[in-house]
Specification:
The structure holds 2 protein chains of 2 kinds.
Chain A lengths: L1 H30 L4 H20 L3 H18 L7 H24 L10 H10 L4 H12 L1 H21 L4 H33 L2 H16 L16 H7 L2 H5 L6 H31 L4 H27 L1 E3 L1 H4 L2 H12 L3 E6 L4 E3 H22 L3 H6 L6 E10 L2 E8 L6 H10 L5 H6 L2 H5 L23 H10 L3 E7 L3 E9 L4 E9 L2 E6 L3 E8 L3 E4 L2 E6 L2 E7 H4 L11 E9 L2 E7 L1 E9 L4 H4 L5 E6 L5 E5 L1 H14 L19 E5 L3 H11 L5 E5 L2 H10 L5 E4 L8 H9 L9 E5 L4 H10 L3 E4 L4 H11 L4
Parallel strand pairs in A: 2-4, 9-18, 13-15, 19-20, 19-21, 21-22, 22-23
Antiparallel strand pairs in A: 1-3, 4-5, 5-7, 6-7, 8-9, 8-16, 10-14, 11-12, 12-13, 14-15, 17-18
Helix pairs in contact in A: 1-2, 1-4, 1-15, 2-3, 3-4, 3-5, 4-5, 7-8, 7-10, 8-9, 12-13, 15-16, 16-21, 25-29, 26-27
Chain B lengths: L1 H24 L3 E9 L2 E6 L3 E5 L14 E7 L2 E7 H4 L12 E7 L2 E7 L1 E9 L17 E7 L2 E6 L11
Parallel strand pairs in B: 2-10, 5-7
Antiparallel strand pairs in B: 1-2, 1-8, 3-6, 4-5, 6-7, 9-10
Classes of the chains: A alpha/beta, B alpha+beta.
Chain lengths: 786, 168
């Protein structure tokens, strides 16, 4: 029974693949009813499904496909012309076939109360005018399964040889026949065994006896094969299709998606290790500059990083599917729609071989479908109207996919009536989606984006196709889920263009690392439109909200620290960094405290417990082993909107108390020698400074981390646990200590020591012994005290 | 070296023998790991513990309860880090040398928990474990039972509730 199960699964996979193609072919057939090759192709699909179906005892499916096959066969022979009406019935039966197959997939049987094939069968019969031929084969069908199967296979083989004949030399044909006979013999054996097993289970002995001899006789006598070419080919028909391109078929392998996912995870780990290696190399490079082994290390690191990147791309490619898989559905959709709406629409598909990650392909179908429906329903005018304005009667919808950098762009363009931004604004105003003021400030592009707002629909009359007020906002949500962006352009009277831009893959992404106070965040680069440096004066306030005028746009400005409620410890600088984010239709300017750089990151989940945190999509592990959170830009924009209405950027920065005299300052003195600390204290304490002490670098660092009131530090170099150089390096890693005055006070006097001191970030370098006045002056100078 | 090894193995053998003897007497022995949070001693089943590590750096996560310190990297896995001292409203002390992260498998998920210090691995007769005090205190829901050892009172925690948020 397991074998049967396996066969059944193979059958379903194959059947669904064929049906996908079938829809497109049928629509094409309607415009080219005489295309014999196309007809043959379609005929074979119906055939294969019928054949396999009967073998698997799927009687309902077999009966349906059988009737379809009849019509197609007649069309193929030129006895019947395919009219749109006939096509409707055929398409209906294809739909039913799909439903049956789905039922088989879900329930393992094609017998269901939900699907009644009889009305369709009657229609199909009516079309083929109840000719004798169909009844005869029907009778055959019922009388003996096994016999039918054989004849079918035989015939198909014949068909195959006929087809290939033209392109082959006599020797090749010989070989091919030989091969096929052998294949057939093997397959028959397997099939017989399966059948036998089944039958013995059924204890149906009489049947068994009837079948055995027939089957056995067949492989040995290929000759009679040629004598019955008229019988409907079945089981073998499907083989005749792939057999034509044997070489290509053998080069593909079906792989379980889980295995690919697993592979992708492993690559992810590798990318992390690679990042780490690069980081370590950079550290080592600084320390051992000029050493010979660095060259070698450099070579290894760069070769590993190149190979890792290539490997990652290669594995990514294994997950890629052609977008044609999605596009194939649309000719049928357009056809049905245009008949339903009485419009004439021509669909042009371009770039269907563009590849996208499997997970994205699965998600993109529905939004695209909706947008296409929308284009036909709202975009394309009825034929009379088109003629009136001097356009061709048949409207055009162009569906196009292409690569653009790290993204893929899917474009849906129609030559319909287009959209008028003023009308859209008016509509949005009426529905209370925007305020009068917003409408005034809105650019045309922003106005087009209104159609993606929930509750917005421009269709004057509600059809069952679109215009129910749901839809476009769902499209936007779906696209955003894929980290995509939607752009709209439209000219009234000329048509509209929708562009969906989505990243190629979801697992490993390019990200911009930014800091908010001391914390790092990774922002998917796909959503970063640009980064700009602005001054405080560039920020304007409109209705109590901070905005940035950037070229011809007005961006809402939000501080990242406000969004994530991070305590503000940094003072405000003259310059601010703004990351302009775009998701779907909207844009926001995000103020960050630092731009760290661009990096390739691997998305890791935060796990069950922390999942669903607003604004966070996951985490990644960086080269230094630390975890960095990845921003969920779509959610962040929503949060930004809430924050935006509450907080004014400029006002939200805590202003520190102004310090004017030494009494306002706290100085940290770091030295392992008690005497040295005392000397330092004595030099500056009389001036009024508050003094804190630490005996080594580690202690000093802890004090600094926990006490934000330290204004400067005097640091010895030679200390246990952590020396002064390391301390300075560690301190400078923190954004808030970037400007903290650090003064080295040491007995090391060589030039290289001084240089090192500057390198690690010391502001001044004082050598012992020193006069108290000198130390005090240096300190005052660094605190800008006069 | 090999002698030492043999000795160790022998000792372990004896120990397990001894243990199995006691276990035969009473099969209901639970093995726990005890630790201190604040002023109290707690324990969790030894098998639920994946590992115990010294504190490492972690990353803060916004919009979480204050006892969720953030996430940390355990050999390539991103795990949540929960400060049991904050969760149990225990007095806050610095991260001194005794502080450890206990990595526990809670359901299907791993998580790190900050504790003040470890005490010891405990073997306790299950029959001597008392049920949790009969109060409706929210905090007590997390208590599996109370064990006594010598003059110590050890609170055994319910693993599967460790990751429950307060508002659930």
């Amino acid at each position: 029974m397991d074998e049967m199960q396996e066969i059944m699964e193979d059958f379903l996979v194959e059947a669904f693949e064929m049906i996908e193609q079938l829809d497109q072919d049928l629509v094409e057939l309607e415009s080219n009813p005489d295309d014999l090759e196309l007809l043959n192709k379609i005929f074979r699909v119906a055939h294969t499904i019928k054949g396999s179906g009967s073998f698997l005892n799927l009687d309902v499916l077999t009966r349906l496909t059988h009737h379809m096959e009849d019509i197609l066969n007649k069309a193929r022979k030129g006895e019947l012309k395919i009219t749109p009406d006939i096509m409707d019935v055929i398409l209906e039966s294809v739909d039913m076939m799909k439903a049956l197959l789905e039922n088989i997939r879900d329930n393992g049987t094609d017998v269901t109360d939900d699907i009644d094939i009889e009305p369709v069968v009657v229609k199909l019969d009516a079309i083929s005018q109840g000719k004798n031929l169909s009844e005869v084969s029907e009778a055959n069908n019922d009388s003996s399964n096994s016999q039918k199967e054989e004849t079918v296979e035989v015939a198909a083989e014949d068909e195959l040889t006929e087809e290939d004949y033209a392109n082959m030399s006599p020797e090749e044909i010989e070989a091919e026949i030989e091969r096929l006979i052998q294949k057939r013999a093997e397959e028959d054996r397997a099939r017989r065994e399966a059948k036998k097993k089944q039958q013995s289970e059924n204890k149906n002995e009489s049947n068994d006896a009837k079948e055995e001899p027939k089957k056995e006789s067949k492989p040995e006598t290929p000759a009679p094969v040629e004598s019955k070419p008229k019988t409907a080919p079945k089981q073998e028909a499907k083989k005749s299709v792939p057999a034509k391109k044997v070489s290509t078929v053998e080069q593909t392998i079906r792989v379980d998606v889980n295995r690919l996912d697993n592979l992708m995870n492993l690559i992810g780990e590798l990318v992390l290790s690679k990042n780490r290696l690069i980081k370590i190399y950079n550290d080592v490079e600084e320390r051992y500059e000029g050493e010979h082994f660095l060259d070698e290390l450099n070579q290894v690191v760069s070769s590993i990083s190149i190979v890792t990147t290539d490997l990652q791309i290669a594995v990514m490619k294994t997950r890629m599917l052609q977008i044609g898989k999605v596009f194939n559905k649309f000719p049928r959709v357009i056809r049905d729609l245009s008949r339903e709406l009485g419009k004439k629409v021509n669909l042009i598909i371009k770039g269907e071989d563009t590849e996208l990650d499997k997970s994205i392909i699965e998600e993109i179908g529905d939004p695209l479908m909706h947008m296409i429906r929308n284009s036909v329903d709202h975009g394309i005018e009825p034929p009379e109207e088109r003629v009136k304005v001097g356009k061709p009667e048949v409207g055009t919808v162009e569906l196009k996919a292409y690569n653009e950098g790290n993204q893929i762009v899917i474009e849906i363009a129609d030559d319909g009536k287009g959209m008028d931004p003023e009308v859209l604004k008016q509509k949005a105003l009426e529905k209370g989606i925007i305020s009068e003021k917003e409408a005034d400030m809105m650019s045309d592009k922003e106005a087009f984006m209104l159609i993606f707002k929930a509750g917005f629909s421009t269709a004057a009359k509600v059809t069952n196709v679109s215009g129910r007020g749901v839809g476009m906002d769902v499209v936007k949500t779906n696209v955003e889920k894929l980290n995509g962006i939607i752009e709209v352009d439209s000219t009234p009277g000329k048509g509209s263009v929708f562009k969906i831009k989505i990243p190629l893959t979801l697992a490993i992404i390019q990200a911009l690392l930014v800091s908010a106070q001391e914390e790092l965040f990774a922002v998917p680069l796909a959503n970063v439109i640009e980064t700009v440096r602005i001054t405080l004066e560039d920020i304007s306030t409109v209705e109590g909200k901070s905005v940035l005028k950037l070229r011809d746009e007005v961006l809402p400005l939000v501080n990242m620290s406000d969004i994530f409620k991070i305590e503000k410890i940094l003072g405000i600088n003259q310059y601010l960094y703004v990351v302009v984010l775009g998701v779907g239709a909207s844009k926001v300017g995000l103020i960050v405290d630092g731009l760290i750089g661009q990096e390739e990151i691997v998305i890791k989940s935060l796990g069950e417990y922390l999942k669903g945190i607003k604004g966070i999509a996951g985490a990644t592990i960086r080269g230094d082993g630390k975890v960095t959170l990845i921003v969920d830009v779509a959610a962040l924009m929503k949060l930004a909107k809430d924050t935006h209405s509450k907080t004014v950027v400029t006002a939200s920065v805590k202003t520190k108390k102004k310090k004017e005299k030494p009494e306002d300052y706290v100085i940290l003195v770091v030295d392992d020698s008690n005497t040295d600390r005392k000397i330092m204290k004595k030099s500056i304490e009389p001036l009024g400074f508050t003094i804190k002490e630490a005996t080594n670098g580690e202690e000093a660092l802890n004090i600094l981390k926990n006490d934000s009131n330290i204004d400067a530090a005097l640091v010895d170099i030679e200390m246990p646990k952590m020396d002064g150089y390391t301390l300075a390096q560690e301190i400078r890693k923190y954004n808030r200590f970037k400007n903290l005055p650090l003064i080295a006070v040491t007995s090391r006097t060589t030039k290289s020591d001084r240089v090192r001191g500057v390198e690690v970030g010391m502001n001044e370098y004082i050598t012992k012994p020193y006069t108290p006045e000198y130390l005090a002056n240096v300190l005052k100078r660094n605190l800008k005290l006069s | 070296m090999s002698n030492q090894l043999e000795n160790v193995i022998k000792q372990q053998q004896e120990q397990t023998d001894n243990l199995s003897n006691t276990e035969q007497k009473d099969e209901n022995v639970v093995q726990l790991v005890g630790f201190i949070v604040g002023n109290e001693e707690f324990a969790v089943p030894i098998l639920s513990i994946q590992e115990i590590i010294k504190p490492i750096e972690w990353t803060k996560v916004p919009f979480t309860d204050d006892y969720v310190l953030g996430v940390f990297n355990l050999r390539g896995n991103v795990l949540p880090l929960i400060d049991l001292r904050k969760k149990f409203n225990a007095p806050q002390s610095e991260f001194d040398d005794d502080v450890r992260f206990i990595v526990i498998k809670v359901g299907e998920e791993l998580a790190g928990f900050v504790i003040d210090r470890l005490t010891e691995a405990l073997r306790i007769n299950g029959n001597t474990i008392l049920p949790p005090p009969d109060t409706s205190m929210e905090r007590d829901a997390i208590i599996e039972g109370i064990a006594r050892k010598d003059d110590r009172i050890i609170t055994i925690l319910k693993i599967n509730l460790l990751l429950k948020t307060d508002n659930e």
